[in-house]
Every structure is written in structure tokens, then in C-alpha cells.
Amino acid sequence: MKWLVIILTAMVTGARLAGAINWDWLLVFSPAIIYVGFYAVVWIIVLAILIAYFVACWIKER
């Protein structure tokens, strides 16, 4: 999946720089932004679950 995002972003960036497409830069980099955003959301969910688990264990011990 990572290689697909890298190749797709490089191809679209090259096409934008060559003038073949006239897209906004946000749209050009959207595959990379979506890829990073997906993993950021996954890490936030994992951290929230871990914090909830440790808080529940801490409350149970009190």
C-alpha cells in the first residue's frame, strides 16, 4: 500500500510540474495526506484504548 501511495503521488506531482494537469496542490498530495491521516487516526484510537485500560486498572486498584 505504501508503494502505491508513493508512486501515485510522484506521478501526479510530476504531471503537475510538467503542466499536464492543472490541479490544486492539495489534490496532488491527497494520496499521501490520506495515507498519513489513516495511520494517525489508527494510532490515536490505539492510544485512547491503552489510556482507558490503564485508567480502569488504576481505578480498580484504589
Care to give the gist of this entry?
The protein is mainly α and 62 residues long.
Q: What would your notes on this structure say?
A:
The protein is mainly α and 62 residues long. The chain has helices at 2-18, 25-28, 30-61. The longest helix has 32 residues, at 30-61. The termini are far apart.
Q: Which stretches of 5+ consecutive residues score pLDDT under 50? A: none
Distance from N terminus to C terminus (CA atoms, Å) equals: 45 Å
Label the structural class.
mainly alpha
Shape: rod-shaped
Mean pLDDT: 94
Biggest sheet details: none
- Provide the helix percentage: over 70%
Number of helices: 3
User: What's the total count of β strands?
Assistant: 0
H and E string: HHH
Beta-strand residue fraction:
under 5%
Rg computed from alpha carbons, rounded to a whole number of angstroms:
20 Å
Task: State the main characteristics.
62 residues; mainly alpha
